[in-house]
Design brief:
Elements (H helix, E strand, L loop, with lengths): L2 H17 L13 H19 L7 H33 L6 E4 L4 E6 H4 L9 H16 L3 E8 L6 H21 L7 E5 L12 H7 L1 E8 L2
Parallel strand pairs: 3-4
Antiparallel strand pairs: 1-2, 2-5, 3-5
Helix pairs in contact: 1-2, 2-3, 3-5, 5-6
């Protein structure tokens, strides 16, 4: 087995090990995002390093350099998400708002009950304070694009729910823009009841499905 193939298999093993790491009970691995980023970056860097040169004498050296540079870049990206998620969670006054670090992006889940009255797309005063806190966080971490997605339960027609979810997403995005987030970073869309996170057969499940999600995706 030549060195290049050995390196590629080893890098693939690193990715697999990261994927199989123990979880903390919330669906995320026990490693911090900084550690996960370093592991993924090292694997990718090693692969790129191993494939960049046809000179077999340099493959090991290039793979090692690639792994080091990839690990550093991945650790930096992961650390930024860790810090942003922590700062954002601490800035929110409502404990029912979830900030979830998905590894490559942050997901802010805001239940309908704290944002809107039934059937309305007008954001409540209390929720506006938390949206301003989100906006301040976004301005402190400007290198990202922001997707605001509205979701509903399956009560009523598809057309009604698509329209309501779209208007709610636009209302939330409008407040973020009014609070200083560049409109060029913002995108608002409605998913209606197409992406449930719980069963629509129970009142509790329908309540969970009625939400707005703010997805914060780093751009570098």
């Amino acid at each position: 087995m030549n060195l290049r193939l050995t390196t590629l298999l080893a890098a693939s093993g690193l990715v697999a090990l990261g994927a199989c790491a123990p979880t903390d009970g919330t669906g995320t691995t026990g490693m911090s995002r900084t550690q996960q980023g370093a592991l993924a970056g090292a694997a990718v860097g090693a692969v790129l390093g191993a494939t960049r040169d046809d000179d077999s004498n340099n493959e090991g050296r290039d793979a090692a350099r690639g792994a080091i540079l990839g690990a550093a870049a991945g650790a930096v990206a992961g650390n930024v998400l860790d810090r942003q998620a922590q700062a954002l969670q601490q800035s929110l006054s409502n404990p029912n708002i979830q900030v979830i670090n998905r590894g490559s992006y942050l997901q802010v889940v805001m239940p309908e009950g704290i944002l809107f009255a039934t059937g309305s797309a007008a954001v409540s005063g209390a929720a506006q304070n938390d949206l301003y806190a989100v906006a301040r966080n976004l301005n402190q971490y400007p290198n990202s694009r922001v997707e605001v997605v509205g979701h509903t339960d399956n009560t009523g027609s598809m057309a009604l729910n698509m329209d309501l979810s779209q208007r709610r997403a636009q209302s939330v995005a409008g407040i973020l823009a009014a609070a200083g987030v560049s409109s060029g970073r913002l995108m608002a869309s409605g998913a209606g009841y197409n992406r449930p996170i719980a069963s629509n057969n129970t009142a509790e499940g329908r309540a969970q499905n009625r939400r707005v999600e703010i997805l914060i995706r780093p751009t570098n």
